[in-house]
Amino acid sequence: MNKDNVSTQSLKLENILDLAEELNSLKDIDAILDRILLESRLITGAVAGSIFLVENERLKFRYTHNDELYGKEGNNKYIYSSFEIPLNRNSVVGYVADTGKPLLIDDVYSLPENLPFHHNSSFDEKTGFHTKSMLTVPLKTLQGNIVGVMQIINATDATGKVISFPPESESLISFFARNATMAIERGIMTREMILRMMLMAELRDPKETGAHVQRVGAYSAEIYHRWALNKGINIQTIRRQKDVIRLASMLHDVGKIGISDSILKKPAKLDDNEYNIMKFHTIFGARLFHNASSELDILSREIALNHHEKWNGTGYPGKFKEESDESVTLGEGKKGEEIPISARITALADVFDALGSVRSYKEKWPDSKVLELIKSESGKHFDPEVVDAFFQILEVIIAIRDKYQ
Ligand code: C2E
Ligand code: SIN
Ligand code: SIN
Ligand code: FE
Ligand code: FE
């Protein structure tokens, strides 16, 4: 290695150490995977990449980028596809997961015949993408457990021409992956903790709660992403906000903990008195984050409190004096941009999900009727810009619903 190479290499190492620190500021698993993939691709100029995580002895496709096919900044419905492969040596990712060793391939279409693994060309055939060079590294904990595999595809030179991954990228990316694995484990734990919290609250059938909460969180994150692009907000800010919005939105109904089961689980329509009590779940939720200090607490509070406000001012709980006051009463509804954007988005995500699901008190609505209601409530219940963003990414919304059933 010549002198130049050594200094670029140490510069890159320094960047990687800085990055490891930044990764620790992210909370949600999807935001963490997004960042890991983005930075690994930047280091190597790779056009595409995917992350697989080990679950029940299988490799689950969990996150993906492909600038050529999906663009750099827009919403990506492919991150919600549920596809998995066996953890064995027949595939490239399976081989890397099983051996625990990185694998550098210059051209996947000229692999020697005698290797245990094969390149699966069905993705290329389906999409017209041409996979050539590939670097696949295990995501390994300090204890040596394999939690997944990251694969980056088609390194490029300064002119955008596809080249082989330089030999030193194998150790650089492996080094980065070791730091990244800790962030991944933390991200999975955060999400599991939120799911466990909602489960303990026994808000509904435990089998349903997890999926429902993940759906509303994902819908909100993706609607926010589209809405923010429409507003010209820069992509770094979008990435950071999307991270917290997903988790905070998962907690929107946590205040239902304060509502008695006789109301919460009533298998029929609520009477006026019961419905009035039910409305306090917004205030109960906000109280749980009363001493909000972290960004996540602040946003969770904002969403819990305001997710039933309506754009035209007819929602609840409205403006009231002191929420910790026992005798708090509902006030005049907040209107338009008085309602925080996080809550305007979660309101739509929540209603879309509620209407498309069976509840103890209602049947599931057909899609056409749900979409019709959302359209007709634009400017009434919902912020019109949020409705527009929702319809722009309807494909992503449907992919989310299919993933978390
Ligand atoms: P949720 O089930 O998560 O519903 C969230 C929101 O979706 C509702 O807020 C409402 O805006 C919308 N939504 C749900 N089902 C329908 C429907 O059949 N038609 C229409 N047009 N909109 C619907 P909302 O009304 O403020 O209710 C808040 C929460 O109160 C609901 O959360 C649910 O837990 C409870 N709730 C509301 N109505 C009833 C009821 O008649 N019986 C029971 N047992 N619970 C109810
Ligand atoms: C994970 O397995 O990546 C965390 C939970 C989930 O998103 O399913
Ligand atoms: C639940 O009530 O089961 C969870 C939260 C929600 O309804 O959005
Ligand atoms: Fe609610
Ligand atoms: Fe809800």
Entry keywords:
about 400 residues, alpha+beta, Beta-Lactamase, Hypothetical protein af1432, 2 domains, 6-stranded antiparallel sheet, two-stranded antiparallel ribbon, 16 helices, 8 strands, elongated, binds ligand C2E, binds succinic acid, binds fe (iii) ion
The average pLDDT is 91
The CATH topology label of the largest domain is: Hypothetical protein af1432
Task: Give the neighbour order of strands across the main sheet.
Answer: 3-2-1-6-5-4
Described by strand count, sense and barrel closure, the largest sheet is: 6 strands, antiparallel
Portion in helices: 40-55%
Could you name the CATH homologous superfamily of the largest domain? Hypothetical protein af1432
Instruction: Quickly name the level 1 CATH class of the largest domain.
Output: Mainly Alpha
Question: Would you write up a description of this structure?
Answer:
The protein contains 16 helices and eight strands. 51% of the residues lie in helices and 10% in strands. The protein has helices spanning 3-23, 29-44, 67-70, 92-99, 122-127, 167-200, 206-230, 235-250, 261-264, 272-278, 281-288, 295-306, 341-355, 367-376, 384-392, 394-403, and strands at residues 48-55, 58-66, 84-86, 103-105, 134-140, 146-153, 155-156, 162-163. The mean pLDDT is 91. It has 405 residues and is α+β, with helices and mostly antiparallel strands. The chain has two domains: 3-180, Beta-Lactamase, CATH 3.30.450; 189-403, Hypothetical protein af1432, CATH 1.10.3210. The protein binds ligand C2E, succinic acid (2 copies) and fe (iii) ion (2 copies). The site of one fe (iii) ion (FE) has 5 residues, from loops.
